Amino acid sequence: MAPKDSEAWTVCASVKGLETVVSNLLKGEEYQFRVVAVNEKGKSDPRQLAQSVVAKDLIIEPSVRPKSSSYSVQVGNDLKIEVPVAGHPKPTISWTKDGVALKQTTRVNVSDSAHHTTLTIKDATREDGGMYTVTIANALCSKDATIEVITLDKPGPPTGPIKIDDVSAESATLNWEPPSYTGGCPISNYVVEKRDTTTTNWVVVSATVARTTLKVANLKTEVKGVTAEKCYLHWSHPSHDGGASISHYIIEKRETSRLSWTMVEPNIQAISYKITKLLPGNEYIFRVTAVNKYGVGEPLESEPVVARNPFTTPSAPSTPEESAITRDSIVLTWERPENNGGAEIEGYVLEKRDKDGVRWTKCNKKRLTDLRFRCGGLTEGHSYEFRVSAENAAGVGKPSTPTQYIKACDATYPPGPPNNPKVTDHSSTTVSLSWSRPIYDGGAHITGYVVEMKEALDDEWIVCTPHTGVQDTHYTVKKLKENAEYNFRICAMNFGLSATTDQVKVSEAPLPPGKITVVDVTRHTVTLSWEKPDHDGGSKITSYIVEMQPKGDEKWTVCSDAKALEATIEGLITGEEYSFRVTAVNDKGRSDTKPLAMPVLVKDITMEPTINLLFHTYTVKAGDDLKIDVPLKGRPQPEVSWKKDGSALKQTTRVNVLNSKTSSKITIKDATKDDVGKYEITLTNSIGTKTAEISVIILDKPGSPSNIRADEVSADFISLSWDAPTYDGGCQINNYVVEKRDTTSTTWQIVSATVARTSIKVSRLTQGTEYQFRIAAENRYGKSPAIDSAPVVAQYPFEPPGPPTNLHVAHATKTGMLVVWGRPANDGGSPVIGYHVESKDQSSILWTKVSRGLLTENQFKMTGIEEGLSYQFRVYAENIAGIGPCTKSCEPVAARDPCESPHNLKVTNITRNSVSLFWDPPEYDGGVKIVGYIVECKELPNGRWLKCNFTNLQETYFDVTGLTEDAQYDFHVIAKNSAEMLSAPSECTGPVTIKDDVEPPTIILEDKFRKYFWFNLFSILVLVLIQSSQKSKDIVKPVIFMFPQNLPKST
To answer: pTM of the predicted model, to two decimals?
Structure first.
């Protein structure tokens, strides 16, 4: 470098890389720089920096530019996110996750360099997903960038609770929310399962549900115990019996391929039935119909069921092995199948196929029950393959893998010797051998191999295998003498002839030891450990020789002769470096040496305590012993303390702690559930403190459930719930056992022994009976003590309803009556489900029920009555608790048609305060005499109908008085007969204005005068009734006019 405008160049750095930092410059000075390359032949020409540089601090605004805004990683894989950064002065870098400072662990690390910040996540978990923000800041400002990390995994569970809507006798609609964690990709489908709460078996409803809702149908009738010829049908009583008890049920069936139903049982009182004579393989639907005295209800259908056995065909037996091969027969043996399909194996079917053919044919005419069969009738010189199948109650299973082709012939030459015999493994008392098949089989199939052995100094060979040989091309010889040298040979056999391998020798010098590790170093000692050799040469390792070499010395010195895999070398000089090597020794000599990779500097080492947990959770069965061994390290030697559930661990005759330099051990004898908990080990030395936690689980039968509650009590059922045991025995609660007893008895009866939840509905109870229940939990290790409930009486929590209101006959004729009423003022706490109606003749004392079944409406039409008789009625209301008291009987009503209305109503006179009316009697009086009339008027336009006569009116005319002058009125008349029945009102008069009026007089001739008209030859006699058109209401005396018969017309 050189100051600006100066030619005095000085060397400021000599580097091997392509970058350097020049220091000790003067602030504010301007410098020139140039670079020269150098090799063995000399220096290059200098290359000068184009511009001079002023020595001063540069200020660059920080920047952060991630390569991508989101990263995806599969759970269990590693993720590395490298983010370029820039800025001067060098910015500080910080990371946050979801708004919280990122906590670095052994899995999650952040490393920074001059131009990058790198986030590394090892073995990613779903918790690593989220929004990561990297922030860089210097004196100028700060910048940040957000990166989304998506972890790909199976989704979390759907979000509950599951909502159950639209529940009916046969179906229910389920709704749920998607999982909060989708696994980093869209949910493809949901799997919905169901189970009867009396069992622990789940059945798939649908495995392809695309939405978060599903209607589950066919929930009521169940078909169980299905076999190829029979099944068991179960159902529940109807929720509503129609007002009368169920007398019996009708069971029908049909094949799904047909439309017609077939009667199975027309009269069954139970709620379960065994159906037989099904056709194997056919699919059936069953339906059950309830019957009471009023008729047959709606049927309830089952799901389709295929008539087949619950067990399957067995798996395949092992491949048959051949022996005793002759020109016309072969003996074959095999092993049982691993899975019998759920039913006992009844026999086997052995088949053969000629190499020149394509069809498999049976070897056995009768079912085979043995695992061995001699197949005869073979053709000499032909090759055959064989296979075998197992058979159970479900049928014949899959065949085994076929054998290789086997030639039917008598052996004529011995086979060649087995190839490549070698020792594959050995111990102090065993040797494992392997070989390959002979190249030449002697013209017959190899039937087996015989292994022989002898000690090296003996002459006699001893057979190790069975005399018939082994089929495999490997064998382990056991019970050998330790440190003895053996020779082995293998013989191949065909039908009666054999050939032998050369001898196989075992013992030799061992291989070198495995990896050497420095266990500990102090100011005067080094402790080493190493792994056993991969091969001990066929003889036991007797010792290991450890040698050392001080740094700068070429001589190796034996410093230890160890029997174990560890040695401590003492008497070393503090501060010196030493190299070490180890040699394995057996009876045959020494192995090659194995050196320690790096020299060791002898000095005291300080080390923070470390805990290497072998397991985080220990499990032991109650009554067994438990040992927890925790390896530890630390220099100086750390102090060890234990806690259980936050309190200092108390040592007893059962619980002991034993500490050593390298480990701390807890021994628990005869473990009990009191030993369950969190055990915490703490190591402390002058360098630091380390803590680790271990969970201990004792496997035992669970504790008792608690807090039994009667959530719902009714006359025939009680719904119970309880709390799960606080101690589950170290494993999942499989089920609960629920029992009941009548408090007048000491005998307990099992309600259910397979309750999977902490609730149950106990049905078929007797109303008014007091019950007590007891519940026990059960896991794989046994059943807990039971807990008893308080006594509970099976009764409805409400009463029958009160009597209906406002009972009356709304309409009556000679053939029927309409009875109506209102709902009871008190429903007893449960909704009214219907009514019952009774009637009687007024002269009778016997009430008769006239409603058939339960009436759901507030009215009843009674027919079949006797004309002229008077009837009374009373009504009862019913809810689920029963039938309440009846109403008071209504007034007697006669069975007659109502009389017709009066007709031809006319206004005959009007004054300023009265109106005179006249009408004709009804044409039909209802079968009884008309005894009077009721005249009503209404002031227009908004008045009400008011009665005008207050005494019985028998005439067909009436003067209405007390009216308002100039007002308008309307009038009608109602007839009444002797049965106290009123007709409908007559037609109205229409508006009538109240004022004096002058009208021509009118003559009204009454019926009694009309009979006096007569005629003769000489005259006509006329009788006239004259009525004044003014105020007069009296009828004048009759006036008689007589006219001559021949009076002229003009007169």
So the answer is: 0.33
